[in-house]
Amino acid sequence: MTNNLPSDRKPAIIAALAGGWVGDSASLGLHWLYDSARILEVGGESPEFLPPDADYFTVGFGYFAHEGKRSGDISHYGAATGVLTGSLLASKGILDVRDYQRRFRAYFGPGGQWRGFIDNPTRVTLNNLNSIEQEAIERAQSTITTELTDKQKRILVQKVLPYTRRLSGNELAEPVRRAIDLTYHETEIQEAGVYLAETIDQHLLPESGANDMQLPAVSKLPPLVASYCGSDRLMELSEAAVRVTNHNDEAVAWAKCAARLLDHLFRGESMPAALETAKAYAPDQASLARAQSGSSLDAIQAGDTFGRTCYLHEAMPVIFHILTHARSYTEAIRANIHCGGDSCGRAWIIGPAMAAVHGVGGERGIPLGWLTRVTDAPAILRDIETLVNRPWSVSR
Q1: How many structural domains compose the chain?
Q2: In which residues is Mg(2+) bound (predicted)?
Q3: Both 376 and 301 in a single domain?
Q4: Predicted local confidence at residue 4, as pLDDT
Q5: Which of 43, 58, 117, 216 is deepest in the core (most CB within 10 A)?
Q6: pLDDT over 90 for what percent of the chain?
């Protein structure tokens, strides 16, 4: 974990996490425009931070998903990464799957903070979390031995759900009793409510994700890798985090490849060495090797060859091509945008990987001016620094 890393690696990891936010934000304006010729026509050689505009999509194939967003805003990928970052911060750098699920549901679900596009893994995950909860309620109700009326059963469910959605285990009993006591003073009814809450809690599943092989499986990994960099639990916990939104074996395999890549870069390995190590975890090593071949960067051709959509078997070869051949953060992000398609999703691996190697500023790092263009940059950077520096570890 990061508190076990040499202090001289922490600035690189902070830069890497910032690189994901910047790359996502820079790509938003032309995200899901698949026509590279149209991208060049609209954005020229510097296509970053264009304001999302439906007019860009009137020529060539594409899907305009970000109406109402402005230059500097993040995509739904960044929003989901922010949810996991918030959970890691709340848990002092530890992955708490239940807390992550709760925050994900609260942020993207009804009444949540997110306003924007909802992708398939997010939509299905929200439905699955509701279904898992309902099945847990039914199982708990069917095993209550206390004699209750149907009305009492309904009221008890209403009483306990606010607590099972944010507390677990031994945390449940006391607040549940207090809540029930507002309506029912009988001890047996209160104990039935506690049983109901604890039984629901025991049957909420950690694997809530969609059977989906798209980029949301890997885009949220950078803060998790930062928290468990160098840990022998990284692969296990990467899988656990991925299955919250993408309960699919192939998605997990690609995520382990991406997590291993970032882990080695965060620890200071060279880009060629990290790519080679990560390749061993990929479900299709041959496509990655082909993507790395050649002597020059041609992301548009890589997109023509491997695909530009959100599916990981298309995106990961494009990512490996760009990381193999790009010489700077700026070149990599621009190449990714020019490739077209799901540039925001790919940016969450490309940006952190390039920034881990090249840092911030100078000829090859994240341009300082780009950092300032990200919406809510001060708050984002503060959270990144807190996650990596781990001030809570001092008191342990």
Answers
A1: 2
A2: 342
A3: yes
A4: 63
A5: 216
A6: 95
